[in-house]
Write a structure and sequence with these properties.
Strand order of the largest sheet: 2-1-3-4
Low-confidence stretches: none
Order of helices and strands: EHEHHEHE
Radius of gyration: 13 Å
Number of helices: 4
Structural class: alpha/beta
Distance between the termini: 19 Å
Strand content: 15-25%
Largest sheet: 4 strands, parallel
Mean pLDDT: 96
Shape: globular
Length: 109
C-alpha cells in the first residue's frame, strides 16, 4: 500500500504528516511494514527543504525531516497511490481534476 500526503508546497504540512505517519508505522512493531508513505505538493518546487518551523516542531516529537526534499505532485504519483490524504479540500479538488478516477481514494484531513 502506498499513502500519498498532499499540500501546497510540500515543505510544511504534508512533509510533517509524512514524518508523523512514518513514525507511527515504525512504532507499530512491523505490523504495517508493507505501507509506503510519500508526500508531494501541488505547487512544490522540487528539492526545496522543509521549513525551519516544520523541522523544529517535529524534532520535539523525535522526528527528523531535515533531509526531506519537496516534490512536485504528478499524475503518476496520484495513479500509483492506494490512498491520498490532502490537507485541504482545494488540494483534493486539484487531484481529482488531474486524475478524475482518484476521487474514490482521496480524502481531506
Amino acid at each position: 500500500m502506498k499513502i500519498l500526503l498532499v499540500c501546497t508546497g510540500n515543505t510544511c504540512r504534508s512533509s510533517m504528516a509524512e514524518g508523523l505517519l512514518k513514525k507511527m508505522i515504525m512504532e507499530s512493531g512491523g505490523k504495517h511494514k508493507d505501507i509506503e508513505v510519500v508526500s508531494a505538493g501541488i505547487s512544490a518546487i522540487n528539492g526545496d527543504p522543509p521549513s525551519e518551523f516544520a523541522i523544529k516542531a517535529l524534532e520535539e516529537q523525535g522526528i527528523d525531516i531535515s533531509h526531506n526534499k519537496a516534490k512536485q505532485l504528478t499524475a503518476k504519483m496520484i495513479k500509483e497511490a492506494s490512498l491520498i490524504l490532502t490537507m485541504t479540500s482545494a488540494h483534493k479538488n486539484m487531484i481529482i481534476s488531474i486524475v478524475p478516477e482518484a476521487e474514490e481514494k482521496t480524502y481531506t484531513l
